[in-house]
Amino acid sequence: MNFSVSKKEFFDALQKVIGVVPPKTTISILTCILLDLRNGKLSLTGTDLEISITTTLDVDGNEEGSVAIPAKILVEIVRELPDVPLNIFSEADNKVTIKTDKGEYKLATQPREDFPQISVEEGELVFQLDAALLGRMAEQTMFAVSADELRPALTGINMELIPGEIRFVATDGHRLAKITVSNGMLKEDVRRNLIIPTKTLHLLLRNLQENAPVGIQIGEDHIVFTLERAVVYSKLISGTYPNYERVLPKDNDKRLQVNRDQLIASLRRVAIFSSSLTHQVRLMIAADEMTIRSEDLEFGAEAKEVIPVAFNGEWMQIGYNSTYLMDVLRHLEGEEVVFELKDATSAAILKPIEKREGEEIIMLLMPIRINEAAPATGTEYSYSAE
């Protein structure tokens, strides 16, 4: 193998693949990135056996071939090189040389034959999604996935396909994010639920190119995303996603409207004074203003701010984990957001005032029990996502 490529293009391609390489594994070949040169196109492939990604770029090649190079050292040396042309070629002693006009760097390789062959079966369901839309659906839900490995279904995104609609849902039992897109891209008889690993979607976002369709193939236990310059293959998370519809409240009759950026800015300041354990802030809501308050009894610190709102209910007080609340607000679009509330112990529904055509976004957030005797502490409510 022998080719020349600019440092920037090569490093950008490595960055798109490195995320799938496992940092720790007993299978040493999985720590490598496979470089394969054919007809002037260089393919870079990484895998952890559950998820695989291949990205391609055009290079000036005069000798085809393939090698498996340890990813960590390859990325580190390419990162530190100046933005100059690189000449990369393999040698007979199982080494690869990266050569510039100023230096030469030799890396040991592993047997190309040991690198896993990823076989992709024909998908049962095939369709396309706009790249920008797919990216937005992923970004507005991934923040809410659970990190609890004992509940694997909640560590991924639930992709729900129903006639005329696609839904992405994520929840960790304390918050829930749901986005629904209706644009008739699916056949009327399609019904399918699948759980996509969050790691897969992170890799996908690194490779998405705007204004380009993404081909999606869904098999019995896998999903394949085909992009212009990359292919992402992933096993699906087995199991059944919880019935999230039953935890979405239907009788929240109090409506609070507030400027999203103003609320986030106030929360960022006031939350500095909250308990490091609960991150609790209290919202005291009146008809035309809301007081945001936090206390940390351990350090004798407290803060409060007042911002204008529009509220159609009687005065009420409710506590939230400020980190969770800010996460939800950051993933809503538009200037104004609406809280649909019932009382201080029930889940709130948050929605943007402005909506994109054919899209619906709903966020759910559980409150924290306010303990008046010790306002810096509190028990966070959660629902049973089973």
Number of domains: 3
Average pLDDT for all residues: 91
Gyration radius (Cα, Å) is 25 Å
The separation of the N and C termini measures: 53 Å
User: What is the number of helical segments per DSSP (H or I, 4+ residues)?
Assistant: 6
Largest sheet: 9 strands, antiparallel
Care to describe what's here?
The protein is of the alpha+beta class and 386 residues long. It folds into 3 domains: 2-114, DNA Polymerase III, Chain A, domain 2 (Roll), CATH 3.10.150.10; 125-245, Roll (DNA Polymerase III, Chain A, domain 2); 248-365, DNA Polymerase III, Chain A, domain 2, CATH 3.10.150. It is 16% helix and 41% strand. A 9-stranded antiparallel β-sheet has the order 14-11-12-13-26-25-24-18-22. An 8-stranded antiparallel β-sheet has the order 6-2-3-4-17-16-15-10. Strands 5-1-7-8-9 form a 5-stranded antiparallel β-sheet. A hairpin with a 2-residue loop joins strand 2 and strand 3. The longest helix is centred in the first third of the chain and has 12 residues, at 7-18.
Structure, briefly:
With 386 residues, this protein is an alpha+beta fold. The protein has six helices and 26 strands. The radius of gyration is 25 Å and the shape is elongated.
Furnish the topology, listing elements before pairings.
Blueprint: E1 2-6, H1 7-18, E2 32-38, E3 41-47, E4 51-58, E5 60-63, E6 65-70, H2 71-80, E7 85-91, E8 95-99, E9 104-108, E10 125-130, H3 131-139, E11 156-162, E12 165-171, E13 175-182, E14 192-197, H4 198-207, E15 213-218, E16 222-226, E17 230-235, E18 254-259, H5 260-270, E19 280-285, E20 289-296, E21 301-308, E22 310-311, E23 316-321, H6 322-330, E24 336-341, E25 348-352, E26 359-365
Antiparallel strand pairs: 1-5, 1-7, 2-3, 2-6, 3-4, 4-17, 7-8, 8-9, 10-15, 11-12, 11-14, 12-13, 13-26, 15-16, 16-17, 18-22, 18-24, 19-20, 19-23, 20-21, 24-25, 25-26
